[in-house]
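Lecture notes, unit on protein representations.

Consider one protein chain, 265 amino acids long.
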Amino acid sequence: MFYQSSKPNPVLAPWVDSYWQVQLDAGPTPKSETILPNGKIEMIFALHGDYTVVNRQTNKIHQAWLSGIQHEHLHISYKGKSNLIGIRFHTYGLFPFLRIPVNETVNAVEPLTDVIGKLYEQLYESISQATSSVEVFSIINLFLLRNLDHDKVKQLKLMEEITRQLNLRPEQPISQLADRMGVSQRHLGRVCHDYMGVTPKLLARIFRFEKSFSHLYSQKEEEDFKALIDLGFYDQSHFIKEFKRFSGMTPEEYKKRAVESNNFL
């Protein structure tokens, strides 16, 4: 497998986390991966390979697609040779490039034709003709710079701080976060809805879940639930119920599958 990543142009860095490319040959037998919610947004171009992306709302094969903020797990199946190019946006990073309400992308996997229209065809063709990863990432940089709506970036600092605070302390009450930031709880909710498409509470739960499955994966001894309670789970029963709601499996099932599989995120 070949994997390479790159940081975006500094002008785009507030919105885009990274670019990446993966090339692999999965062979003739279909393979599958499980993708768990993590608060990130992915725009993916399958230059080679056919992919089926499945969640409760989506069951389609896409040449290129946008995966918005997810609050349910995704299943991705594929076989044969693959060449994937990806743009990984920050939690709030899609908004200034989007021409549709950002909440329409939440928990959905949509063809890029439905999201950016004919511009998708131009970008896909340019990427397909590139001869190196460096050229691919340069093309993406130029595309995003040309399509960045500067009128939509006025709330950047607030969005950055909201995301940072919820990621750092997902267990904190939203009312306390609003007070600390000097805004009303209503305004905080409106900013999250307009710029990220989700409520502050749901975003905090996604971040808390991400921390919990990272903790489970790294835990080597008998599970220490104190760390999970510190994340805001009331007790073991609450943790198991919340974990299953986001992942579709119990913590024990997750840990077993994660240890056994290389294609599990």
